[in-house]
């Protein structure tokens, strides 16, 4: 039984990961600041699914508070840290950039320092498919260069990968970064397309369809994400003996450091995604076709070969299955 810190435990992915780990017998400390970026009551409802469990402890705290984080790590002595807390959202980073620096940069530094000084055996952290930025070569591979982000959110996630590599190299801290591709499913984030579309369609309101629905996304169901996170967490990275500074591979290192994509490896056009949602809801959407937004990319597709090779896992849930499960949850949770 491991003692694991899950940051962002009241968030979408953090809640599901914590729940899975508790069910398999691990001891979990969940950290979250319960900020109001989206509906706090949804975060509190997720926590109510976790707090009755005897091996779960919740701490209300902010990653960016250095003293709080120092005290937490010193008192708990975590075997593993799964760092999923962050200021999320590409478009919001155009409006409130400081929030991304506080949470995603300062907060991540505090996580790294806590792991470094308190003997954490493995840090697993959330990166994002957004780091691929202006790349157009598909599918996106962890072995591709990612030096051209197109949003501050993406730049902070790229920074996290660089910071993690530094700590893996200098201090031997094993670090694994996970680039998530458009995660969706029950208990999802209200600022994401599936949640926004479902609410609007059921209320008879139009939906904003960016890039006129021609965007393609590697929509990845939450259960697949969780299984990938846990499998990677259980596999501490080791230095790659074949890594060479003459031809540096971005996905591996001479240090105990790895990067993985977790995506469905099956991109779907946004218009098709909406069609499936209409089928599951039994209602048609009123579509407000709009141009692509600043910071958005037209397409994403994950190369998951490394994840398959090292963790023996490929995400597989179809959008028909995944959207259906989300709609069932949404109707039950909101009573519609």
Sequence-ordered SSE layout with sheet pairings:
Blueprint: E1 3-7, H1 12-24, E2 27-32, H2 40-50, E3 56-60, H3 66-76, E4 80-83, H4 97-117, E5 122-128, H5 152-171, E6 175-180, E7 183-184, H6 193-202, E8 207-210, E9 216-217, E10 220-221, H7 222-233, E11 257-262, E12 268-269, H8 270-281, E13 287-290, H9 305-311, H10 319-334
Parallel strand pairs: 1-2, 1-4, 2-3, 4-5, 5-6, 6-11, 7-10, 8-13
Antiparallel strand pairs: 9-12
Helix pairs in contact: 1-2, 1-7, 3-4, 4-5, 6-8, 8-10
Taking all Cα atoms into account, the compactness measure Rg is 19 Å
What distance separates the N and C termini?
Answer: 40 Å
Biggest β-sheet: count, sense, barrel? Answer: 7 strands, parallel
Mean pLDDT: 95
From N to C, what is the helix and strand string?
A: EHEHEHEHEHEEHEEEHEEHEHH
The helical percent reads: 25-40%
Spatial strand arrangement across the major sheet: 3-2-1-4-5-6-11
Class from secondary-structure proportions: alpha/beta
The helix count comes to 10
Number of strands: 13
Stretches where pLDDT is under 50 for at least 5 consecutive residues are none
Beta-sheet strand percentage?
Answer: 15-25%
Shape: globular
């Amino acid at each position: 039984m491991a003692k694991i810190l899950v940051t962002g435990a009241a968030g979408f992915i953090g809640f599901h990961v914590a729940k899975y780990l508790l069910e398999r017998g691990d001891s979990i400390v969940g950290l979250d600041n319960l900020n109001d970026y989206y509906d706090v009551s949804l975060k509190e409802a997720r926590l109510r699914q976790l707090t009755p469990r005897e091996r779960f402890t919740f701490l209300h705290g902010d990653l960016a508070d250095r003293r709080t984080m120092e005290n937490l790590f010193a008192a708990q002595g975590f075997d593993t840290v799964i760092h999923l807390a962050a200021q999320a959202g590409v478009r919001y980073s155009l409006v409130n950039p400081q929030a991304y620096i506080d949470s995603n940069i300062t907060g991540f530094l505090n996580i790294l320092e806590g792991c470094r000084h308190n003997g954490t055996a493995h840090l697993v952290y959330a990166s994002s498919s957004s780091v691929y930025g202006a790349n157009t070569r598909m599918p996106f591979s962890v072995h591709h260069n990612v030096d051209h982000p197109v949003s501050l959110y993406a730049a902070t996630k790229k920074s996290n990968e660089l910071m993690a590599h530094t700590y893996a190299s200098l201090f031997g801290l094993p670090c694994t970064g996970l680039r998530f591709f458009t995660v969706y499913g029950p208990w999802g984030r209200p600022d994401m397309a599936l949640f926004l579309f479902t609410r609007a369609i059921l209320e008879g309101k139009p939906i904003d369809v960016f890039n006129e629905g021609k965007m393609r996304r590697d929509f990845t169901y939450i259960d697949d994400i969780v299984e990938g996170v846990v499998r990677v967490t259980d596999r501490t990275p080791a230095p790659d003996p074949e890594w060479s500074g003459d031809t540096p591979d971005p996905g591996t290192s001479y240090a105990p450091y790895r990067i993985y994509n977790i995506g469905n490896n099956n991109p779907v056009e946004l218009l098709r995604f909406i069609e499936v949602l209409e089928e599951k809801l039994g209602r048609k959407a009123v579509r407000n076709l709009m141009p692509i937004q600043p910071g958005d990319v037209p397409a994403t597709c994950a190369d998951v070969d490394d994840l398959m090779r090292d963790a023996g896992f490929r995400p597989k849930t179809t959008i028909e299955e995944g959207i259906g499960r989300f709609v069932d949850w949404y109707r039950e949770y909101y009573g519609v």
